[in-house]
Specification:
The complex is a heterodimer of chains A (175) and B (247).
Chain A: H1 2-10, H2 12-16, H3 20-27, H4 41-53, H5 55-72, H6 80-93, H7 103-133, H8 138-174
Chain B: H1 12-17, H2 19-33, H3 39-46, H4 54-86, E1 97-105, E2 112-115, E3 128-131, E4 134-142, E5 147-151, E6 158-163, E7 168-173, E8 181-184, E9 196-198, E10 211-219, E11 227-232, E12 241-245
Antiparallel strand pairs in B: 1-2, 1-12, 2-5, 3-4, 3-12, 4-5, 6-7, 6-9, 7-8, 8-11, 9-10, 10-11
The chains are: A mainly alpha (175), B alpha+beta (247).
Chain lengths: 175, 247
């Protein structure tokens, strides 16, 4: 337990950067959108974290992010399962190291991640809506899903390389 | 002794000398007979720049606007008095809480606004949020100093409204897209595109007669009752301040 706390303390700066995610989600800058839909900041933060820090850490980070986002969003659908699954998957990929640190593969990973994230949210909301009114919300779901996946995958390489650079410099400074 | 000017033997030459006078008299005669043709036209042309023009039109429009505003206020007062007599929910502006929008996500997975006032300012779950243009949504959760609004477009948003022209009640349901759908309660709804949708004047949950939107498309074949698509009048993308109607 003590070693875990020490480890967390070492990483505290990197973890704190995760707090930017809910703030950016709330800020929702209107100039950074594709047809009104902004990027999925949680995916943008989780991708470098998972690749850098491994499976278990990414799973927990996914849980924390999911809880934070659930707190600031409307309604009862939850972000937690999608983000945990993405953290687990990307954490596993991280062992291969250099092979996936390409602009194209990062973009593709974040695109697939955002689509899965969106599908999980959309399924939950559509199921609730079917129970309430019998309608499936297909056009809105597809529109939001692909707009968000596009803007997220465009931003992903930029955010990935800047976050990784900041974290590595910070850990070198700590060591 | 010089000879007089008009000496007896009348000379046509002399008449000829005063011909400009004849001409003038002739012209004036034409003016007289035509009741001022030419003269008035010239007058209108010369005084054109001084005549009532666009400036005066603006004065009149301003006057009409003022008259309309006064009439609106008088009617609102009258309406208020009558509602009090009928013991219906009051529609006055008194008691409205103004709040700033601190976060705005009108498009995407969550259609919500976050406001900069919360429980300590007297806001409760279920309070109605109004903005320029009409009804925006319902307060869905409250923290001590912030509150979250479920916009009318959000999935799961449902409020009771009616069309004021033919007094048909329906439920406005958020579908995620920009335009919520209005599900009528009667089979015979008789609604056409262009009908104004507002909150019901007899509602106890909502402020009465607040505009919500305009019917754009009606699907009369829908079962069990017609469904209309409504274009909202308030646009949450551009609103910085809202007003909360506490129940």
């Amino acid at each position: 337990m003590a070693s875990l706390m020490a480890k967390l303390y070492e990483k505290s700066f990197c973890l704190l950067s995760g707090l930017v995610v809910p703030f950016l989600t709330l800020l929702a800058p209107s100039w950074l959108t594709v047809s009104g839909v902004g990027p999925c900041w949680a995916v943008l933060w989780l991708l470098p974290w998972a690749i850098e820090d491994g499976q278990i850490s990414a799973l927990l980070a996914g849980l924390c992010l999911g809880l934070l986002l659930d707190g600031i969003s409307l309604g009862t659908a939850t972000h937690v399962p999608a983000l945990m699954a993405l953290g687990w998957w990307w954490g596993g990929l991280g062992r291969r190291g250099k092979q996936i640190e390409g602009i194209f593969s990062l973009g593709l990973l974040s695109w697939i991640g955002t689509v899965l994230f969106g599908i999980s949210l959309w399924l939950q909301m559509a199921l609730m809506q079917i129970i309430e009114s019998g309608q499936l919300l297909i056009s809105w779901g597809v529109y939001t899903l692909f707009s968000q996946a596009l803007i997220t995958s465009i931003l992903a390489p930029v955010i990935y390389f800047s976050l990784i650079a900041i974290w590595r410099r910070k850990s070198a400074f700590n060591a | 002794m010089g000879s007089p000017k008009w000496a007896f033997p009348f000379r046509w030459r002399q008449l000829f000398r005063i011909r400009p006078w004849f001409f003038l008299i002739g012209v004036l005669g034409v003016i007289r007979l035509s009741k001022g043709a030419g003269l008035l036209d010239a007058f209108a042309y010369i005084t054109g720049p001084l005549s009532p023009g666009s400036a005066q039109r603006e004065w009149i429009q301003k006057g009409v606007q003022l008259e309309n505003r006064i009439r609106l206020e008088l009617l609102a007062e009258d309406n208020q008095r009558l509602r009090e007599i009928l013991d219906l929910t009051k529609s006055s502006d008194a008691g409205l809480i103004s709040a700033a929008v601190i976060s705005r996500q009108p498009v995407g997975w969550w259609q919500q606004l976050d406001l900069g006032k919360g429980r300590i300012h007297g806001i409760k779950n279920g309070d109605v949020v109004l903005g320029p243009g009409g009804l925006l949504g319902i307060i869905q959760s409250v923290t001590p100093t912030t509150s979250r609004v479920r916009l009318l477009t959000a999935p799961g948003s449902r409020i009771g409204v009616w069309t004021s022209r033919n007094k048909r009640h329906g439920i406005l349901m958020g579908m995620g897209s920009n335009r919520p759908s209005l599900r009528f309660l009667d089979k015979d709804s008789d609604v056409v595109p262009g009908d104004v949708v507002s909150t019901s004047p007899a509602s106890t949950l909502m402020p009465p007669n607040v505009p919500v939107g305009v019917v754009q498309v009606v699907n009369t074949a829908a079962l069990p009752a017609p469904i209309a698509v409504v274009q909202l009048t308030a646009s949450p993308e551009a609103i910085d301040w809202v007003q909360i109607w506490p129940r």
